[in-house]
Amino acid sequence: MITLVAGNGRILLTVNEHGEWNELFYPYPGQFQQLHEARLGIFDVRANRFTWLGQDHGAPVAQRPFGAGQLPESVWSGDGIRLVVRDHVHPNHDLVVRVVRVAADPPRPLRLFAYHAFQIAESMYQDTAFLEPSVPSLVHYKRGYYFEFFADPAFAHAACGEHTLKGLQGTYVDAEDGRLEGRPVAHGAADSVLEWDVEPPAGGEVEIHLFLVAGRSLPAVHEVREYVRRGGAPRFVREAERFWESWADRRLPHPPPGLSELGREIYRASVLVLRHLAGTNGSIVASPDTRSLAAAGDAYNYCWWRDGGYVAKAMDEAGLYEGAGRFLDFAQACQSPDGSFFHRHCPDGALGSTWHPPPFLQIDQTATVIAAAWHHYKRGGDPDVLVSLWPLVKGAANFLTEFRDPGHHLPKPSFDLWEERLGIHTYSTAAVAHALERAARIAAEIGKEPAPWRAAAEEIREAAVQRLWDPGLGRFVRSIEPRDEKLDASVLLGLKLGLLPWSDPRAKATVDAIEQRLWSPKVGGLARYEGDTYFGPENPWIVCTLWLAEARLALGDRARGRELVEWAAAHATPTHLLPEQVDRETGEPRSANPLAWSHSTFVDVVHKFAATGSDGAVPED
């Protein structure tokens, strides 16, 4: 499981609960996952004892975020040996710096080993690993991706080999007798091991700086390597840490008042996670967690327009205005010719995989991008932004206006936000009405004609209340065509988007019904919908619980709203990451972790909590 992250908008590094590098994405967060496996090991020369570090190998690890940027730190201890490992991603070079501090009591000679196996461009063949003994450095490459290791002090020995294919375990086996005897070059499913011979003094420690440069050519990585060697290792560690100190001081907002210390910590961590998961090209990956590959055959490392739109809104709320703007520019570049948005895109802008048949639509995704554009303008107040985004807004709004049944004015059937059912859904319908009303506002701001979109929004809203409200049930149904009466937390999000005024008693009746049925009795939190089985039966989701928090705030119950926000904070991981959902029996994280949508919703609802008075006057989106 991912426990810590660091990135610079091109490299995204994740660290797992064993303190090891878990994923290494390059050249965009979420694309490509270049790393197959990484390990650190220690050999006690006098005891003739080798240990791979991490919980699975009997060497306990403690982890915490360190510094203003909440960067990864892992501490291993056992047999009188202690290693403190800190990971950095340099802010402007495509450079990972791993600082390892080794201490031993009593003092003794040790050998530190670092093993790395790549899956360059996400395949495990045609790779090459070779040693440059004159530097020394070690390079892994395939086609247009190059990764070069070097260190200060320099590693004493290195070995290249192969893993996985041909039934091989991996070159890490070569280290387990305490000495490396492998080759200086290997190809195929190539891997490598580096070795340092160290003897920490009594009461002191030895510090090793391991550098990994990523680049698109061999000269490019060599150039950065030599630049770092000339500048000295400590300088680049200092630059990486100082950047986050400066960024946190000048860009990381102070948490709004009224939260617990934990709530404030999760707020700060959430803003940083959104920063790390956003690419310099504007893409926003839903999650770097690739564990679902084994269960579902695919992962969350795509840009969904719904997720990205809500993340962009949270970025604007937290003052990350440039990040939200880049997302909208990326969206404009990826928009389909008819104005809609495809199911999801890869972080480089290519079409992502999908399980939906043509026309590959979840109409709320197209709607969310329009809403994000209005929110971005509202926070920045620059009409030039609307002029540049006008083609996006016009195309999307025209598509949503036309994608309706002329008989009842509601949107035609599409897939719901959970990506499971085809129909006319309460949330998706509310999202379309909300987006068209926002498109009308944008048009009016820059002198365009707003009336058609405003009229379409009103028609959709009126038809939705008429056809999706069930007087007999006393609440909104989930969807029609086909009719589905199951209670679904997404209806809360539809109410947030103005399906009804919060003062309308039907709004409270719907919220009450959803909370009563979907609240998890053992660990708390709100499930997605009746009968949900994704990663467990009706597990509570972070976003759903936070939607309920916002609904309670809007209905004037500030105390309950705060309780729900604090529930979400309490179910973050010990390293301050918010998962998609938690186990309904144990409260442990389930599914993707961290999930950008969970973090963005936490930021958004905390801002709503801070701005909401006892009268329930929640600021509009």
Structure description:
By secondary structure, the chain is of the alpha+beta class. The protein folds into two domains: 2-238, Beta-galactosidase, Chain A, domain 5 (Distorted Sandwich), CATH 2.70.98.10; 251-611, Alpha/alpha barrel (Glycosyltransferase), CATH 1.50.10.10. It has 15 helices and 27 strands. The strands form seven sheets. Strands 7-8-9-10-18-14-13-12-16 form a nine-stranded antiparallel beta sheet. A five-stranded antiparallel beta sheet has the order 6-5-11-17-15, with no helix packed on it. Strand 12 (127-132) and strand 13 (137-142) form a beta hairpin. Helix 13 (542-554) runs parallel beside helix 15 (596-611).
Task: Outline the fold blueprint.
Layout: E1 2-7, E2 12-16, E3 21-28, E4 31-33, E5 35-44, E6 49-52, E7 61-66, E8 71-78, E9 81-89, E10 95-104, E11 110-118, E12 127-132, E13 137-142, E14 145-152, E15 157-162, E16 185-188, E17 190-198, E18 206-215, H1 218-231, H2 233-250, H3 261-277, H4 292-296, H5 305-317, H6 321-334, H7 363-380, H8 383-402, E19 414-415, E20 422-425, H9 426-445, H10 451-468, E21 469-470, E22 475-476, E23 479-480, H11 490-496, H12 505-518, E24 526-527, E25 540-541, H13 542-554, H14 558-570, E26 581-582, E27 589-590, H15 596-611
Antiparallel strand pairs: 1-2, 2-3, 3-4, 5-6, 5-11, 7-8, 8-9, 9-10, 10-18, 11-17, 12-13, 12-16, 13-14, 14-18, 15-17, 19-20, 20-23, 21-22, 24-25, 26-27
